[in-house]
Amino acid sequence: MNAEKRLLKVEEVRRIVGEDRLGRDAAYALARRYGVRLGKRLLVPYRVVEAILEGRLEELEKTPRGEAWGR
């Protein structure tokens, strides 16, 4: 993963997690909940993807919003 790329498009998230495991609708729901909007683009922080892959997405629910996004 390129260190510069901290925000991912929804389709990139699906590719990383596995398109067979994360459907399009679920990926957009995830992006709306944990992502950031830049204009019309909906982007997901890589930290959220890491949490999904490591099975600790619930921890993001308990973390204040600023910390969850790495700010």
Blueprint of the fold:
Blueprint: E1 7-9, H1 10-17, H2 24-34, E2 36-38, E3 41-45, H3 46-53, H4 57-62, H5 65-68
Antiparallel strand pairs: 1-3, 2-3
Helix pairs in contact: 1-2
Please characterize this protein's 3D structure.
The chain has five helices and three strands. The protein is of the alpha+beta class and 71 residues long. Strands 1-3-2 form a three-stranded antiparallel beta sheet. Strand 2 (36-38) and strand 3 form a beta hairpin. Helix 1 (10-17) crosses helix 2. The protein is globular. The two termini are 19 Å apart.
Helix content: 40-55%
The number of distinct helices, counting runs of at least 4 residues, comes to: 5
Question: What's the shape?
Answer: globular
**Sheet bearing the most strands, described?**
3 strands, antiparallel
| Quaternary | single chain
Average pLDDT metric: 87
Gyration radius (Cα, Å) is 11 Å
Strand percentage, roughly? 15-25%
Which consecutive residue ranges, at least 5 long each, have pLDDT under 50?
A: none
| Class from helix and strand fractions | alpha+beta
Pattern of helices and strands: EHHEEHHH
Cα separation of the termini:
19 Å
Strand order of the largest sheet: 1-3-2
The total of beta strands comes to 3
